[in-house]
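Hey,

Quick one before I head out. I ran the complex with iron/sulfur cluster overnight. Inputs first:
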Amino acid sequence: MNFGKRLAEWYQKNKRELPWRDINDPYRIWLSEIILQQTRVNQGMDYYIKFVDKYPDILDLADASRDEVFKLWQGLGYYNRAENMLATAKMVVEQYGGHFPADRELLLKLPGIGPYTSAAIASIAFNLPFAVIDGNVYRVLSRIFGITEVVNSTEGTKRFQQYADELVDRKQPGIYNQSIMEFGALYCTPVNPDCRNCIFKNECFAFSNGKVNDLPVKKPKNKIRNRFFYYFMIEPEPGSNETAKVYLKKRMNVDIWKNLYDFLLVETDHKLELNDDIITGMLQQNFKLEDPLIRLVSKEYIHKLTHQAIHATFIQVNVNKKLDEHEKFVILTHKNKLVDYPVPRLIEQFLSDYKIL
Ligand code: SF4
C-alpha cells in the first residue's frame, strides 16, 4: 500500500506548525526531543522556547550551571532529563567541538540519548535511515498491521523494531518518522481514533476486525507506591536576626528530584493524623528541635508520578534554635530568594497557594 508515501502526503497536509518542525539543526531537534519525552506538546513548547531563547546554541547550554538549567526546567518533572541534557551539552562541546556526531552509535553514547532519541536526531538532522519507535508508532503499527505482541516486552520491542526498520523511507527518513508520530498523535489516538476519516481505514487490521480498542497490547501497569511527605518549612523565631529566612535542603539521594531543593522532610509509608504533639515529636526526633511555634499545616497535595504517588503536607514552624551542623546540604535563605532555587512543582504550588512568595 506504499505506507510511507501515503503517510508523508498526509503529513504535508495535516502537520501542526511547531517551532521544531522543518529544521535540521541537531541541537534544536535534540532539545525538542528531550523536552517532549513524557510531556505534552503544548506544555513542552513553552519550555522549548524558553530554552532556545536562553541558550540559542549548545555552547551556551554547556556553559550553564546546573541550578540555572534546573530552574528553567522547573515544572517539567523527570529531572534526570535535565541532568543528562547538561551532561550531553558538555560532552558534545568537549569531544565534538560543539557539533553532534552524524553517527547513531556515537549519539547513543551521549547521556540521556537512547534508541528513540538517537533515531530521531539521526533521521531528522542527518537524513540517516533509522526508524523511531515511540508510543505513537507502537499504536499505529499494531493497529494497521495487526501486530499482537506485547509492546513493552523484549520480544515485542524486537518485532516492532523489525517492522519499523522495513517500513522507514530510506530517501526521507526524517519526514517518515515525523509523519508516523504525527499521525499517531492526531488521528490514531489512544482513545477515539478518527477511523472514519482515516486514510488507512480500508487496510487497517484493527478497524476491519473491530480491534481498535484492543491494540496495542500492553503489559499491566506496576502497582503505584504511595509515599507520604511531611515537609517542615522551618523558620527562625520572629524577632531573631534571621527573621524572614527559611531552611532549604538540597536533595542528594538517589531518588526523585535529585539536585532540586526542598524543605526538611520526614517521609512515612502511611498517612499520619497530625496534631501539635505529633508535629512537636517529629521535629524533636528528626531535627532535635524543641518548642516549635506551629504556624500552618497545609492541605494535602497529591503529586502523581509514573510509579508512585507523593502525598505531601507542609508544616510551617518557627524555632528558636539553629539546625544541627550534622544536617548536610541544608541552607538558610531569605524567603524572597526562594524563587531563585529549582524546586519540585509541588513546592512551587504550595508557595503560591499559601501566598508565601
Ligand atoms: S483506521 Fe483507525 S485504528 Fe486504523 S489506522 Fe486509522 S485511525 Fe488508526
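The radius of gyration is 25 Å.

Talk tomorrow,
K.
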